[in-house]
Design a protein that fits this description.
The structure holds two protein chains of two kinds. Chain A is an all-alpha fold. Chain A has helices spanning 2-23, 27-54, 63-83, 90-95, 100-103, 109-114, 121-135, 139-166, 174-189, 198-206, 210-222, 226-251. Chain A has one domain (2-251). Chain B contains ten helices and nine strands. In chain B, strand 8 and strand 9 (234-240) form a beta hairpin. The chains are: A mainly alpha, B alpha/beta.
Chain lengths: 264, 291
């Protein structure tokens, strides 16, 4: 069992290493992608800076909490796209019948699939997120909480993408819905939860999991609450288990395909 | 000893049907219509260890679907499959250590990596140690003459070189059964001949069972002794290539004999009839089409 896990990890590490090697083939594109992602993220913060010169808080958040919010969103989203980028385009793989090569390998299909690609600009997101939180001087405990929530946020974003993508086993053209829902999650995650009330707040906690991926963690980082921390951990685990279960349930319906293709 | 046992294997796909034009598209939203297509319908056969079998048929006959069920890619709707004594639906990962697959139309290799890096990756997938992988790469690159391009990225290789690398990648873990789905598609005659020779050599030296689907008659004639023809998801013929040829030569001779007698022509005794396998297959496919 331990050997199997060790061997599985060895393949994952190799897969991620090869993904990054592929992206690094073109050094200029690699560096510009990373740098422009950092700049792109930073430019939006200017708006918040101006806003906080006019008001003391927005939706119950101070500027420091907005920085936590942006840092955590960028780092979680970045990490999920560095390690598990393929989860975010799973729909397309299912619709076009591209899971065959993973199914004939003696490794966990899901892990092999989702680690088979890396979004290189996500390195910029991760670096930006870490830099932003470090700039807030959260202290050692706060920084560890940030690392923990980056991992839970990554799990929630990846599981959400996986869950939506897996629905393609049953419904066609889920790729569009998957893309839109993920973009919504990321967009909403960069605003304070206090501005959302009623049904929109309900949706952002229970349908699009922004609340558990980012808002709750930011509250815990701003003012520690063990109950909230456990809720986030429990939610991340439950959503991941549900997403994996839906994927494997759907895999039985996988219809493959006969399109000519190459592993790029 | 049998490498593959298949009993009453079936697979049905549900396909959406839509009337033509925009109106049909709108209608399909309100009243979606689906149709069941039986891709494989009660197929049974077995393959001995070390045997080289051609599993052929016209497009859409159910060849690829069968191969995908044998390798654990697709779940059958009914029937029983065992490959090297393992049920692919229950122990897919265990089975993967015993089989190798080459899909001529689908690449398994990472195109930006060199064949060497790819082989190292496949070695890790099959839990080989670095030393074992190195030894196997050495052995296979010698046999498949890959030395000149083993350090060139796959995307810069010719199709023939790439297919050789695909085969080597699928052999890295010494599989007991090799599934080849159109392995020579798009290759020039010389490269085709080389690939066939290598497959034959591998079967001889490592006693690998070969399960081949191909539209190329040369692949079938030069590699396989036994042939299974499928159409509409069912087996229509299971015979040796030799027997099939003899049977058709006899049949043609009888037809000519009957035709000559009918027209009162004299028989040409002693003239041997030479029917190619391609002609035989076209005849079988056509007669199946005509029902």
């Amino acid at each position: 069992m331990l050997t199997a896990v060790k061997n599985g990890l060895r393949v994952c590490v190799l897969s991620i290493k090869y993904n990054i090697m592929r992206e690094m083939v073109n050094k200029v594109t690699f560096l510009t992608n990373v740098c422009f992602m950092v700049l792109n993220n930073a430019s939006i913060l200017v708006q918040w800076f101006i806003l906080f010169r006019l008001r003391e808080d927005v939706g119950g958040y101070t500027f420091r909490e907005i920085l936590f919010l942006w840092g955590l969103t960028a780092a979680s989203f970045g990490l999920s796209h560095i390690l598990f980028a393929r989860a975010f385009s799973l729909s397309e793989l299912i619709i076009r019948g591209k899971l065959d090569s993973y199914l004939v390998q003696p490794k966990n299909v899901l892990v092999s699939v989702i680690t088979s690609s890396t979004d290189i600009s996500a390195i910029g997101d991760l670096l930006y997120g870490v830099a932003l939180v470090c700039a807030c001087r959260p202290g050692v405990g706060g920084f560890f909480l940030f690392l923990l929530f980056t991992v839970t946020g990554m799990a929630v974003f990846t599981a959400f993408a996986l869950l939506l993508g897996s629905l393609s086993f049953w419904f066609v053209r889920m790729d569009m819905l998957q893309g839109q829902m993920i973009m919504s999650a990321v967009s909403f995650a960069t605003y304070p939860d206090g501005i959302f009330t009623g049904i929109s707040r309900f949706l952002l906690y229970f349908i699009i999991p922004v609340g558990m991926a980012v808002w709750h963690p930011v509250h815990v980082m701003a003012s520690f609450d063990a109950g909230m921390l456990l809720t986030v951990l429990g939610y991340a685990c439950a959503l991941s288990v549900a997403a994996v279960a839906v994927f494997y349930r759907g895999l039985r319906r996988y219809a493959s395909g006969n399109l000519m293709e190459a592993r790029m | 000893m049998q490498a593959i046992t298949v009993e009453n294997l079936s697979k049905t796909f549900r396909v959406k049907r839509k009337e033509k034009g925009m109106r049909g598209s709108l209608k399909a939203i309100i009243h979606p219509r689906t149709e069941e297509i039986r891709a494989v319908n009660g197929v049974s056969f077995s393959v001995d260890k070390g045997e080289m079998l051609a599993f052929i048929g016209p497009n859409g006959a159910g060849k690829s679907t069968t191969i995908k069920m044998l390798t654990g890619i697709l779940y059958p709707d009914g029937g029983r499959v065992e490959v090297m004594g393992i049920d692919p639906t229950k122990k897919r990962r265990q089975l993967a250590y015993q089989i190798g697959t080459v899909f001529g139309q689908k690449e398994q290799l990472w195109t930006h990596l060199t064949p060497y890096d790819n082989f190292r990756f496949f070695g890790a997938i099959y839990d080989l140690s670095d030393r074992e992988t190195e030894k196997r790469i050495e052995e296979l690159s010698e046999r498949f003459t890959l030395r000149d391009f083993i350090d060139t990225p796959v995307r810069n290789l010719s199709l023939g070189q790439r297919i050789r690398c695909e085969i080597v990648a699928s052999l890295i873990h010494k599989p007991k059964v090799l599934f080849l789905d159109e392995p020579t598609i798009g290759l020039d005659p010389v490269v085709k001949e080389n690939v066939r020779a290598l497959i034959k050599q591998m079967n001889r030296e490592e006693h690998t069972t070969i399960f081949l689907t191909s539209h190329d008659v040369g692949d079938i004639e030069k590699l396989c002794r036994r042939i299974i023809i499928v159409n509409d998801g069912q087996i229509v013929l299971d015979d040796s290539v030799e027997q099939l040829k003899n049977h058709y030569q006899d049949k043609m001779a009888a037809d000519i004999h009957a035709c000559n007698n009918e027209h009162g022509k004299a028989e040409k005794n002693g003239e041997s009839l030479n029917v190619s396998l391609e002609e035989i297959l076209v005849d079988i496919y056509r007669s199946e089409e005509d029902g």
